[in-house]
Amino acid sequence: MSRHLDWSVDRATWPHSDSSRFHRVGGLRWHVQEMGEGPAVLLVHGTGASTHSWRTLAPLLARHFRVIAPDLPGHGFTRPPARDRLSLPAMAEGLASLVKALAIPVAFAVGHSAGAAILIRGCLDGRLAPDGLVSLNGALMPFRGPAGFLFPPLAKLLSLNPLTPRLFALSAGDRERVDRLIRGTGSVLDEEGVDLYARLFRSPGHVASVLGMMANWDLRQLQRDLPNLKPPLLMIAAENDRAVAPADAERIVGRVKDARLANVPDLGHLAHEEDAGSVADLIMDWIAVTTAKRR
């Protein structure tokens, strides 16, 4: 079992591989997909995913925008950083360095799950400055109750064991297990979607970065800083999301000065993969309103 995905092998069946480029920035070789023309929209996936999660949404947005979608450090085809660079501030710093190196002004940014937290952290730290942010089922609230005390330390212990990623990859890469995992988030994906996640989870390198990211994840400072967020924020919350409580989005909107909530019925945590058309319409309508307000 190869530790990392191999682009020379996987590109033939990877979504939109013709739009893929590789960039060396900050000591990493980043995998980035670009398509479309117009104002730039940055898409940032969540923990455990990759550019594949935008395979349907990105082309819809690319009809009107220049879409930029990277694999986060250690995810997909982007090589992992040092373990201490998988924290939220470090991930935000790394993403901002990539955006700067690409020399493309980002007009709007869309983050799914943990990707939303990375974008918001980057804006709060002054490293990113889009005209607006979209949080798609954003994982922005710390774990509550016992999970808040147990989950990060447990992930840290698992990530320190060099055998854990390989053992996890052997079991989690099973397609039926992956399908059950996805359904546990409230989403139902097509065969291609499940197969792509299974391919990712069969990679020990990808799994190791996911565990390392979870072990270093701390949202307490983000919560304290949220009222200082400057860009307008759209919170999209899927009502069937079992990974991030939809009620969390309401709490976030109440703490950010310029924020709007959009509830999506009948979809789960991976709403943008289940119904990309509906999500694209929400994003484009909000961008149009936000752009008009700035004129």
Short description:
With 295 residues, the protein is an alpha/beta fold.
Strand line-up in the sheet with most strands: 1-2-4-3-5-6-7-8
Helices and strands, in order, run as HEEEHEHEHEHHHHHHEHEHH
Q: What is the radius of gyration computed over CA atoms, rounded to a whole number of angstroms?
A: 18 Å
Fold-level CATH name: Rossmann fold
Largest sheet: 8 strands, mixed
The domain count comes to 1
Spatial separation of the terminal alpha carbons: 54 Å
Helix content: 40-55%
Query: Helix segment count?
Result: 13
State the oligomer.
Answer: single chain
Q: What do we call the CATH homologous superfamily?
A: Alpha/Beta hydrolase fold, catalytic domain
CATH class: Alpha Beta
Tell me the CATH architecture: 3-Layer(aba) Sandwich
> Strand pairing plus helix content: what structural class?
alpha/beta
Estimate the mean pLDDT confidence.
89
Polypeptide structure, described:
Helix 4 (114-124) links the parallel strand 5 (106-112) and strand 6 (132-136). This protein is globular. The protein has a single domain (13-294), classed as 3-Layer(aba) Sandwich (Rossmann fold). An 8-stranded mixed beta sheet has the order 1-2-4-3-5-6-7-8, with helices on both faces. The chain starts with 6 loop residues before the first helix and ends with a helix. It is an alpha/beta fold. Helix content is 43%, strand content 16%. Mean pLDDT is 89; it is low at 144-161. Helix 3 packs across helix 4 (114-124), helix 5 (146-160) crosses helix 9 (204-215) and helix 7 (175-183) packs across helix 8.
